[in-house]
Amino acid sequence: MIYMEVQQIEEKLKTALKPSRYRHTLGVAYTASCMAMVFGVDVHKAYRAGLLHDCAKGFSVEEQRALCKRYNISLEGTLTKSPQLMHQEIAPFLASDEYKEQDSEVLSAIACHTTGKIGMTPLEQIVFIADYMEPNRKMIPGLSKVRKLAFEDLDKCTKTILKNTIEYLTECGQEIDERTVETYKYYRDKKEN
Predict the structure, then answer these.
(1) Residue 43 has what pLDDT?
(2) Rounded Cα gap, residues 101 and 92, in angstroms
C-alpha cells in the first residue's frame, strides 16, 4: 500500500495514542481543516497534517531517543534540555514510514508544528496555530484573542502565539528553542502586505 486512507490513519492513531492525545489530534485536524477553508488552503492536506502532527507522541522519551537515532536526528542543543520537542523532529519520518504520508507540504507542516520556522507556508501556519488553540485546549490567557485571529490573519496569529509561548516559557524558567525565537522575530518584524 502506497497511500493510507484518512480513516485508516485515524484508526491506527486511536490505538497508538492515549485517549486525551487522540482527542487533541482530532481537534487539531478539524480546526486545521476549518482554517484551510477560510484561507484557501487544501482542506485534505490540512486535515492529514493535523492528524499526523503528534504521531510520535505515543512513544516514551527513551523510545523517542531511539527513533532519533534511527532517523539520524541530532539530540544536541535544545533537544537535550527539552525532550518534549523530539516528537516534532520524529513525526515527519514516522508519518512517512508508518502512515504512508508522502506529500512534502504535509510533512513540512508536521515538521514545524511546535517551534514554527521562518517563512512558514499558510499550511504550516495553520497546523502550528491549530495545535495551539484547538477546542480541547484548556483556556489560557490570550487564547480567545488567538482563536479570533486564527480566522482573520495568519501572520498576526502566528506572532501572537510565539510571543505568548516565549513569555510563558520564560516565566516557567524553561528552555526556549532557538527556532521559536527566530520565528517570533521574523513575524514580529514582517511588514504587512
Answers:
(1) 97
(2) 8
Q: Is 168 exposed, middle or buried (0-12, 13-18, 19+ CB in 10 A)?
A: middle
In 3D space, the residue among 58, 54, 163 whose CA is nearest the CA of residue 113 turns out to be 54
Element (DSSP H or E) covering residue 32:
helix 19-39
What is the 3-class SS of 55-105, one letter each residue? CCCCCCHHHHHHHHHHCCCCCCCHHHHCHHHHHHHHHHHHHHHHHCCCCHH
Q: List, run by run, the mean pLDDT of 10-residue segments along the chain (193 residues).
A: 79 96 97 98 97 94 91 78 85 96 97 96 98 94 95 98 95 92 96 61
Cα distance between residue 27 and residue 33, in whole Å: 10
pLDDT, residue 1, reads 42
